[in-house]
Amino acid sequence: MIYGTTKVIGVIGDPIEHSFSPMMFNAAFKAKNMDYIYVPFKVEKHELKEAITGAKAFNIKGLNVTIPHKQKVINELDKFDVMANLIGAVNTLNFKDGKSKGYNTDCIGAIKAIEEVCNLKNKNVVIVGAGGAARAIAFQLAIEEVNNLTMVNRSAKKAESLVYDIKTLLSADFADHSKLDDITIDFTHIDLNFEHGGLDDLPNALKDADILIDTTPIGMHLNVEDIPVATKEIMHSDLIVNDIVYNPIETCLLKEAKKVNATCVSGIKMLLYQGAENFKIWTGEEAPLDVMEKALMEAIKD
Ligand code: NAP
Predict the structure, then answer these.
(1) Of 53, 55, 133, 222, which residue has the fewest beta carbons closer than 10 angstroms?
(2) What is the pLDDT of residues 230-252, one digit of tens each?
(3) Which pTM value belongs to this model?
(4) In a domain, 124, yes or no
């Protein structure tokens, strides 16, 4: 039921019809008997500024931000957190006292997904892809003190430039940035051991790898028969394989990984844990993870 007191959370993007977030969050609010509702809003590229101003005027409590606004929205915000600043992208907004604050929770969501099965410290990690999601995950991995991070991408130049960005930005002094109000990360201990290459370098990189994270859209819904970035011939049983594509839940890469008894982590976990972080930002309460995961599974299967 919606009341005069109901707090509104939403997601802005274009397209937005495919989003599973309304099902995940509305199930969570219902389970916790909270007076909140989560609504999808289609916002075209040229309407972003008006959407943020309008959200403030409508006293909206929070928003998720998705394609094509994740980078551009930074220009419209009053504040953002340290990870959003490093990554240069925001996926969550909170409105308080007429001011907006942006967060990037994709990064921590991805890491919590993998932490369900192992501790990341001192691990050798290989990321395939060098787009927005890879950037968020790589920054967080650098902070988590992995031993080695190898970035491989179809365009090897893009992997190289992402590694350059991370090394440069993590060694800079952010303390004087006027929009940052929560410098909680100690950058001084970070010992960066990064490598980069093209997709041809993947077989070699996987030999000593503990974790493989595929951030490409290969194998996504409607393209489930794609050839995965890695087949069973180059994976091993001690490998943890995380495909961040969440529809289908078991992608072509995860099917290959299963053939060698590697540990599989579905992309649904990243979606779930970034959602849990958002829930806490908006409501101050812990998210009901089981309820949210069940709602996501049901929505994806439909
Ligand atoms: P993006 O910025 O467009 O980056 C895509 C990356 O994949 C690029 O590095 C691109 O390589 C590579 N790529 C694309 N098609 C490829 C192909 N056929 N073969 C090899 N490499 C290919 O996209 P993104 O925002 O990072 O998102 C990537 C995927 O992650 C999407 O499927 C998205 O749905 C998913 N995602 C999941 C979650 C979650 O919560 N689970 C969160 C965010 C994103 P080039 O640089 O060479 O073009």
Answers:
(1) 222
(2) 999 999 999 999 999 999 999 99
(3) 0.94
(4) yes
Q: Are residues 192 and 246 in the same domain?
A: yes
The token duo for 256 is 């290959």
Q: Quick check: helix, strand or coil at residue 12?
A: strand
Q: In what order do the strands lie in the sheet with 263-265?
A: 194-198, 148-153, 124-128, 211-214, 240-243, 263-265
Q: Give residues (CB < 6 A) around ligand 1.
A: 106, 129-134, 153-155, 158, 215-218, 220, 244-246, 267, 270-271, 274
294 is catalytic: no
10 has binding-site annotation = no
Produce one character per residue of 254-287: b if its CB has 16 or more CB atoms within 10 Å, e if not: bbbbeebebbbbbbbbbbbbbbbbbbebbbeeeb
187-231: pLDDT as tens digits: 655 667 889 999 999 999 999 999 999 999 999 999 999 999 999
Give the closest residue (by CA) to ligand 1 atom 17.
218
Atom 16 of ligand 1: nearest residue by CA position: 216
Q: Say if residue 206 is in the same domain as residue 183.
A: yes
Residue ranges for the chain with pLDDT beneath 70: 172-191
Domain limits at 240?
Answer: 107-265
- DSSP β-ladder status, 79-80 and 99-103: parallel
Place of tokens 């991995």: 141
